[in-house]
Amino acid sequence: MARILITSAIPYINGIKHLGNLVGSQLPADLYARYCRARGHEVMFLCATDEHGTPAELAAAKTGEPVAEYCARMHGVQAELARGFRLSFDHFGRSSSPQNHHLTQYFAGRLAENGYIEERTERQVYSHADKRFLPDRYIEGTCPNCGYDKARGDQCENCTKQLDPTDLIEPRSAISGSTDLEVRETKHLYLRQSLMKDELEAWIDSKTDWPILTTSIAKKWLNDGDGLQDRGITRDLDWGIPVKRGEDDWPGMEGKVFYVWFDAPIEYIAAAAEWAEANGKAEADWRRWWRTDEGAEDVRYVQFMGKDNVPFHTLSFPATIMGSRDPWKLVDYIKSFNYLNYDGGQFSTSQGRGVFMDQALAILPSDYWRWWLLSHAPETSDSEFTWENFQQAVNKDLADVLGNFVSRVTKFCRSKFGEEVPAGGAYGERENALIDDLYIRLRAYQDHMDAIEVRKAAGELRAIWVLGNEYLQAAAPWTAFKTDPDEAAAIIRFSLNLIRFYAVLSAPFIPDASAAMLAAMKTGAAGWPGENLIEEMAVLAPGHGFETPEMLFRKIADEEREGWQAQFAGQRG
Ligand SMILES: Nc1ncnc2c1ncn2[C@@H]1O[C@H](COP(=O)(O)OP(=O)(O)OP(=O)(O)O)[C@@H](O)[C@H]1O
Ligand SMILES: [Zn+2]
Q1: Which one of 145, 234, 388, 564 has the fewest beta carbons within 10 angstroms of its own beta carbon?
Q2: Could you give the CA distance from residue 190 to residue 320 in angstroms, rounded to a whole number?
């Protein structure tokens, strides 16, 4: 048994996430967490809402709520949707938690002690119309790197370059649109990442098993242009974690807060502390996941995120941890994703384009989405959601292959033998051949899941389902029954055991359907299959009762698909 710490990129608080956000972070993290638990590992799966920064302030201003209330409400909304998608977090925290305040101030103090913080007088854009400084997303303009005209003050969404507000060409206020801007002086703290460049590069170079997407982005930010830049980690804002040096005030930094990208990854650690508090655990119980001197030396830490988050997780957050010179756990593996696009364009929260988590659940149960999203995860390149593609995958994989298998087997058994596993006959060559095939496929499935190759794993699982249908078709118990009911009984006994086997293997992808299958077979989730698949196919013994389940998956009709296509063609209302 291993100990595995899993974090998903923490979703930003300013609205409901779309299916791209889901498949780029939380959902594959959940898949992996469920799989690791099923394999008997000890798992700590953490996520949280990312609540600081300018977009939260802007969104709260729009609804007229105080920003703290807005964040509390939206956290509740996101937590409810996470439950709806069956995301099995051990804790879903908040970056505005007291634990994160404490840890963020602590890390800043340690970094300062170790010479990794520099105070700089900085030129900041001030807006006369808005009577305030315009950090980060409060300012928009043209990207100096790629020419994209909606780049934000902190990052260009188009080319992923990290920016400072003063880098933008033809800048304008995101609040008022005003171009009546002035550059004024103000003092800020910088994280001296450049001092750690060699250390970071050596560490990245040691990660030879990481996805190329992860290491290539890291290398780009380490070496492109002037190389790794120091990063401003404070802002002139009200909402955020007050700048302190550990427990102490920081002279000259009064009224300033830490930059959201400084405190957000520290929330991964804070979420564990929140978990301990919420569950009546001791400090030591969460620290054994995070401190290599307090029990975490055998923990494997895996992070999940979309590509735009990679620079912060490969460079800035590791710089924070390394620079603390404390034995906090560094990430062992970063699984990053390309983008999921929506029907010929991009998903966009700001433009309300695409399908959002609440809308998806209002249409179909979570398993339908989980299956499509995971089996089409944007791993080696961007991928695209289209309604045709979605309809096809649901109808084929879920309804025709898996659902149909379960339905045919249980209904046939009910009509010929009653609702219990039939006795009679014995497994023969055909069953042994299938077991051999299943064994090979199961190994491949596990290898892909261990390597977090999500699409390949989905492909193997689908192939395992298909084997059952092919077996049933070839064995044809309905024909056998006429001449040799015992042979039909053996085929059906084998098939009922296959249903249980499928339920166990499919649980990480489609947990609800898996639970329904196990309930129908009147059995609990006995452990992951071992080496001996002959035993697996005898778990449900003759006489064991079952229920013929309700339809597991329904098909999507063409008219329905067309209706959704039309409904989601425009902007979210
Ligand atoms: N289209 C997409 N496909 C896959 N992953 C995505 C996509 N868009 C964002 N992500 C990832 O989703 C996770 C959560 O994103 P976050 O809540 O920060 O929103 P975001 O990146 O601002 O997205 P948006 O700009 O669309 O609101 C991040 O890991 C991000 O990289
Ligand atoms: Zn750009």
Answers
A1: 388
A2: 12
Q: Residues near 499 by Cβ (< 8 Å), separated by ≥ 6? A: 405, 406, 409, 410, 517, 520, 521
Summarize pLDDT for 539-552 with one digit per residue, the tens: 999 999 999 998 99
CB 263 within 8 A of CB 100: yes
Residue-number span of the structural domain to which 485 is assigned = 387-536
Whole-number Å distance between alpha carbons of 496 and 493: 5
Is the minimum distance from the CB of 391 to ligand 1 under 6 angstroms?
no
- Specify binding-site residues for Zn(2+): 143, 146, 156, 159
Burial of 251 (0-12, 13-18, 19+ CB in 10 A): exposed
**Residue with token string 């596993």:** 421
Maximal CA-CA distance, the chain: 92
CATH number at residue 433: 1.10.730.10
* Count of structural domains within the chain: 1
**How far apart (Å, rounded) are the C-alpha atoms in residues 498 and 506?**
12
Region 277-281 average pLDDT = 98
pLDDT tens readout for residues 336-374: 999 999 998 999 988 899 999 999 999 999 999 999 999
Q: How far apart are CA 371 and CA 508, in angstroms?
A: 10
Q: Is the CB of 308 under 6 A from ligand 1?
A: yes
Measured from the CB, is residue 24 less than 6 Å from ligand 1?
Answer: yes
Distance CA 92, CA 235 (A): 26
Give me 418's structure tokens: 């009653």
In the chain, the amino acid numbered 264 is A
Query: Does this complex have an ipTM over 0.90?
Result: yes
CA-nearest of 176, 70, 185 to 122 is 185
Structure tokens at 96: 């505005």
Six-digit token string for 568: 């989601």
The rounded distance, in Å, linking the Cα atoms of 388 and 457 is 23
| pTM exceeds 0.90, yes or no | yes
Q: Is 232 helix (H, G, I), strand (E, B) or coil?
A: strand
Of 268, 260, 281, 252, nearest in space to 103 by CA: 268
Output the six-digit token pair for 410. Answer: 């249980």
> 258 lies in a domain?
no
Residue 499 counted as domain residue = yes
List CB contacts of 537: < 8 A, sequence separation 6 or more.
427, 431, 435, 494, 497, 498, 501
Here the tokens at position 213 are 């997407």
